[in-house]
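thought: fold this chain, then report.
action: predict
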Amino acid sequence: MKPTSPISILRLSLLSLAVASIFSAHPAKAQTTAPADDANSDDAEVERRMLQLPPGFDIQLFASEPLLKRPVSMTFDAQGRLWVLCIPRYPQLLPGQDAIDYIAVLEDRAGKGVADASHIFVSGLRVATGMVPDDAGGAWVGEGDLLLHFKDHAGTGKADERQIVFNGFGTADTHHTLNTFSWGPDGLLYFDQGWYINSSIETPRGMRRRFGGAIW
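observation:
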């Protein structure tokens, strides 16, 4: 897999975030062949026009660069805010580079379908590849060999505590490290590791080893 492939996929969906809504009374027109210049454009509005949608659907831009850089994971919290994990340093830190990956929290306060407020929940992450907010203003994060939990005790919207919950997850391939964080209907936290990852985790219930693709 080429290191840029996740970014190419994101660019196909506006290189950022978009929200699709059904408008039954206003069917969208099918997009015809795009001009050559548009096909190579990084402009979010150009990419929006190029997307081919089923009849009855429309799509609008919610947020884009420079607010977000290389977003790889996003999810809404109970307050309707969109949490986005961005990893500008993907797929790895180079010698002399600082860790600058971050989690942004976006809000649509005016109710117009566009992010009009945002803040950084935590920054300085090192190629984190998985994230999901909890129900108390914090977030769970997969960063390399670590499962982390960040808390916001002061209620400022920014993390003020970092806890290593587990370590020992494999890091053989950045493209396959911890990802796809999701809350299950049972209230448990689920996340994945990819095919090339070998993990050995010491837990309160003993060692847990998963070699290859697995769901934790």
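thought: worth noting. Confidence is low (pLDDT under 50) at residues 1-32.
final: tokens above.
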